Amino acid sequence: MSNLKPQHNGACHCGSVRFKVRLTDEFNTIRRCSCSYCRMRGAIAVSAPLSEMEFIQGEDNLTLYQFNTGTAKHYFCKTCGIYTHHQRRSDPSQFGVNVACIEGVSPFDFPEVVVTDGVHHPSDTLGGDRIAGILRFSPTE
Ligand SMILES: [Zn+2]
């Protein structure tokens, strides 16, 4: 683990789930996504390597949601329902972390967030893992 980057504390709304995370490139990787799931969820995500996310408590209080190709893993707290993080589809070595769960920052600190075109996910448009008969919508990942 790199000790050069600051470690951020994070938690869900009710505090059942608590974690520490070092981000891939601080808040330079924040994104919104237009896919069918993210447009409902409405969260802003920031990237972190899988190995840099460490759960202090409540990892067993997370629930997993998968859809479409099932590649991405979207986690949220069983108690308060808040999305904490997801394992990306486009790069499974990375988590997307809910910026709103990170202590000391607010999603409203970033008025101009890039929107990823999740409706036309690269994994679909390149023909990689498209599943016939299922909506072309793909998640944020
Ligand atoms: Zn919670």
Automatic annotation (TrEMBL):
It comes from the Bacteria. Gene3D superfamilies: 2.170.150.70. Residues 8-124 form the CENP-V/GFA domain. Keywords: Metal-binding, Zinc. InterPro entries: CENP-V-like, CENP-V/GFA, Mss4-like_sf. Belongs to the Gfa family. PANTHER family: CENP-V_GFA DOMAIN-CONTAINING PROTEIN (PTHR28620:SF1), CENTROMERE PROTEIN V (PTHR28620). This is Aldehyde-activating protein. It comes from Paracoccus acridae.
